[in-house]
Amino acid sequence: MPVVGVLALQGDVREHCAALEKIGVEVREVRVPAALEGVDGLIFPGGESTAIAHLLNTSGLREGLASSIGDGLPVFGTCAGLILLSSKILDGRDDQWSFSALDVTVRRNGYGRQIASFETVVDINDLGEFPGVFIRAPKIESIGQTVSVLATHDHGDGEHPVLVRQANLWGCSFHPELTIDTRLHEAFVASL
């Protein structure tokens, strides 16, 4: 059975853990560098990207995670997690950083502020219709040549990727952990 870590510094930690437990995966909450030992994959949850980035520094996890990602650790970033993986952040704070691992440009709050949050059905390659929960979601503005688009959404300004994959890295603009549908978690685990 694979061991999947959930970055447990801030955000939708409990919800991701519940989804993984529901599909029979051994889950480990990752708060310190030692918790990375032996994980087969890791989820960066939704939450507040600048707060998570700050806590990655103060917890001592930033350097070890950068090394693990560079060594091929599979990571699934949802919402704020996508921002943390992205190569470029638009509308971020001046001091905002990312791991620059996933070759995408994202715009923070690209679908609007909290009041503009919405739910819609997203059609995902090989999975079909999936409930998309968008809360202050990042908008993927551009992707690199090695990034595969697994789902798009048109929010009135043309189609934008909302689920992407580049080798061992997955990025999602919405929150699959806030639904009862575990198929995205299953797909990530199956890729480990």
Main sheet properties:
7 strands, mixed
Beta-strand proportion: 25-35%
Number of domains: 1
What class do helices, strands and sheet pairing give? alpha/beta
Q: Examine the coordinates and then state which fold CATH places here, giving the name of the CATH topology.
A: Rossmann fold
Strand order of the largest sheet: 2-1-3-4-12-11-10
Number of strands: 12
* CATH architecture descriptor text: 3-Layer(aba) Sandwich
The helix count comes to: 5
- Globally, the shape reads globular
CATH H-level superfamily title: Class I glutamine amidotransferase (GATase) domain
The mean pLDDT is 95
Q: What ranges have pLDDT less than 50 throughout 5 or more consecutive residues?
A: none
Which features characterize this protein?
Rossmann fold, 5 helices, alpha/beta, single chain, globular, 12 strands, three-stranded mixed sheet
Describe this structure in words.
By secondary structure, the protein is α/β, with parallel strands linked by helices. The chain has a single domain, classed as Rossmann fold (3-Layer(aba) Sandwich), CATH 3.40.50. It is 23% helix and 35% strand. The protein contains five helices and twelve strands. The chain has helices at 13-22, 49-59, 61-70, 80-85, 183-190, and strands at residues 3-7, 26-30, 41-44, 75-78, 86-90, 102-107, 118-124, 128-134, 139-143, 148-154, 159-166, 169-172. Strands 2-1-3-4-12-11-10 form a seven-stranded mixed sheet. The chain has a three-stranded mixed sheet with strand order 5-6-9. The N and C termini lie close together (11 Å). The model has no long low-confidence stretch (mean pLDDT 95).
